[in-house]
Amino acid sequence: MPLTSRRVVIAGVMAAFAGGALIFLIRSAPPARTPLDPEQTLNRAIELLRGRRLDEAEPLLDAYLHAYPDGVNGRLLMAQLALERAERTRPPDPAQSRRALDQLARISTDSPAAPVASGLRDLSVEARDRTVAALVKLYEGKARSHLAQPAAAESCWSEALRLDPSVAEAGWLLADLYIHQGREAEARRLGLRLAEAEPEVARRLEWLISLAWLDVAQVSPYRVIQRFGPAVRLRPDDRHAAIALGLALIRDRRDEEGLALLRQAVATAPDAPDALAALLTGLWESQQTQGLVEAVKRIPPDWTALTAFAEHLGRAALVRRDWPAAVAALRRAWEAEPHRLDLAYSLARAVRLDGQEGEAARLTARVAVLRRHRDELLEMYRKLLGHADPDLPDIRNDHQFAGGATAAAQALIALHDPAPLRRFAELCEDLGFPDQARAWRRALRELYPGTPAESSGAPS
150 burial class (0-12, 13-18, 19+ CB within 10 angstroms)? Predict the structure, then answer.
């Protein structure tokens, strides 16, 4: 069954960063002999929720749930209302988040009054139940995130996407979590997978622009500390949150606090390569170079072949003035991640110190090209955002993942010009993301049939 036929009718989709939620209109047959019109009540409640008139929407939903206590419709909307209330405060109100969880716990797809969404009428009961279950997991993930439980939120959003990939907000929230935790590779894989599955080219462009955005956007340490500090206090064994928090503290010039967290993460999860790699990164970024040299000696022998450790082995070799070893390790690291400017620069330095002047000159030129690519991506993105909404914040300082991508994608389509899509594809190709480049060219062919996918004499 095509994905388009499985879409829930969504009355409003708001950016995840703006604290928005999906509003679904799910119709079910009313029981006999009741004065309450369920569809009219839900329509009015949805209208009020869209206008953020929560105090007026809540009595309507209370009345609906009094008449239909097993109604999936009202439970989902009441859960959304509670989440909206939670998001009105910073940090989110935990009482409202728990209230949302309570509403979700009362939903059962086995109810005799099975939900029939207006966009899912042609689906089997099993397919409808999977979509409802996916919506429950989407909302549960948001509540868990509000309650400083990022690992539980990640599990919920992953399950929502497994149940029904058309519940797009789960994908945006999961990608945003990965980005804030420094898990860029996972964010890229997720975004590309969801983009390839997306039948609508406009939605696909949102993901592709977001993936290109990763090369220029920066998440401020303050935002990471604010987001994961409470989570680590609550669950010190949450490895991903602890790693993100530890590195953010170092980048906020709180080196000892950050390194202590990273060392604890290694002690808690000694079999996790990402924990040790994060500690090595923290030692380098806090300029504790001798500590880095000692720490790389503790890399298990079977981990040294992992590309995640190549950059650390290379940097330790630089400190030891072992230029050939530094060149070999840093080259391996850069070949695995050719888009990383810092690795290209470190490799150029090592090659020069090793006396390879010609190769050093070539790598220095490549560093300059990577800088130009990043500047060009940033300028392209700025132009798209300016075309859409000049009041959107600076993307380098406030990573509004879904909101900025949606505005930029709409602006890109409104230009009616294939050149920007072609250039995005060329830049992705040159930065070492061939899968993203192919996805851009697919969008180009769909929007502009017959247009060449390659430009003549594109700048490098």
Answer: buried
The pair of structure tokens assigned to 166 is: 């058309």
Distance CA 224, CA 246 (A): 10
Q: Note whether 207 and 191 are within 8 A (CB).
A: yes
Which helix (H) or strand (E) covers residue 24, if one does? strand 23-24
Hey, is 117 helix, strand or coil?
strand
DSSP 152-191: HHHHHHHHHHHH-TT-HHHHHHHHHHHHHTT-HHHHHHHH
With contact defined as beta carbons under 8 Å apart, do 327 and 347 qualify?
Answer: yes
Please identify which residue in the block is written with the tokens 């406009």: 202
* Boundaries of every domain in the chain: 3-109+120-167, 218-275
Task: Tokens for 121, please give them.
Answer: 């009428």
The one-letter amino acid code at 330 reads L
- pTM for this entry: 0.86
The label of the residue with tokens 């409802």 reads 132
Rounded-to-integer distance, Cα 357 and Cα 363, Å: 10
Closest CA to 281 of 264, 259, 260: 259
* 3-109+120-167: CATH topology: 1.25.40
Cis preceding linkage at 91, omega within 30: yes
Which residues are 24's β-sheet partners? 10
116-134 burial, b if ≥16 CB within 10 A, otherwise e? bbebbeebeeeebbbbbbb
- Whether the pLDDT of residue 295 is over 90: the answer is yes
Q: Are strands 116-117 and 26-27 parallel, antiparallel or unpaired?
A: antiparallel
Look up residue 176 and give its two tokens.
């945003």
Number of H helices, E strands in the chain: 21, 4
Query: How many whole angstroms separate alpha carbon 247 and alpha carbon 180?
Result: 11
Nearest to 294 by CA among 263, 264, 272, 268: 263
More confident of the two residues 395 and 208: 208
| 317-375 residue pLDDT tens | 999 999 999 999 999 999 999 999 999 999 999 999 999 999 999 999 999 999 999 88
* Cα–Cα distances in angstroms (integers) from residue 429 to residues 103, 331, 384, 425, in the given order: 47, 19, 21, 6
